[in-house]
Specification:
It is elongated, with a radius of gyration of 28 Å. By secondary structure, the chain is an alpha+beta fold. It folds into two domains: 2-75, no CATH class; 81-159, Orthogonal Bundle (Type 1 dockerin domain). Helices cover 29% and strands 19% of the residues.
Length: 186
């Protein structure tokens, strides 16, 4: 969110959305205007939040630091991300699992922990669950997320298991045949 105020400034330490303090802030511009009653300031300020979930609405608290604050502008931009896409490359895959593994069981303020897929401030099994729920989902510029068919994933896993099992069985039979051949040659 970006704000522009004139007169008294916002009480930046008390700004919240839905009760949550910003994860990052920055003063973008400050202009001083001399006036008959003293100097006043025009200030552009930027706030960033990383908010979990998808609430239908949020309440924004922007308290003034003085008695005569005037808003010239408020701009709110939103960015929705793909759940589980920890590295923000547009695909939920093994790279995201690696990011979680690198930060496993770390914690800190929301939005500051690398590998925190669900933005709760901790890297744990909940983050792995989010990745599993969105496994191989992908987005592209201007495209909706590609949603893999759940039954296709199950069939792929079952097929891989059968392939591994059949190779192990063939190898076991081959070893038994070689052992019996060796015994007969004696």
């Amino acid at each position: 969110m970006q704000t522009r105020t004139e007169g008294s400034e916002i009480d930046y330490g008390a700004v919240k959305i839905g009760g949550a303090a910003p994860t990052a802030t920055d003063e973008l511009m400050r202009q001083t205007q001399a006036g008959p009653f003293g100097d006043s300031y025009t200030v552009d300020y930027w706030f960033e939040w990383i908010l979990p979930g998808n609430a239908a609405s949020y309440a924004i608290d922007l308290p003034a630091s003085g008695a005569s604050m005037s808003f010239d502008r408020v701009a709110v931009d939103t960015l929705a991300t793909l759940g589980g896409d920890v590295n923000r490359d547009g695909t939920v895959n093994g790279l995201d699992v690696s990011a979680i593994a690198s930060a496993w069981l770390t914690s800190g303020p929301i939005g500051s922990v690398s590998g925190d897929a669900n933005f709760d401030g901790s890297v744990n099994g909940l983050d792995i669950s989010l990745i599993a729920a969105h496994w191989l989902y992908s987005t592209g510029a201007g495209q909706a997320a590609a949603v893999p068919e759940p039954s296709a994933g199950l069939l792929l896993a079952a097929g891989a298991s059968l392939l591994v099992a059949s190779r192990a069985l063939r190898k076991q039979r081959s070893v038994k045949a070689a052992a019996s051949q060796t015994f007969l040659d004696l």
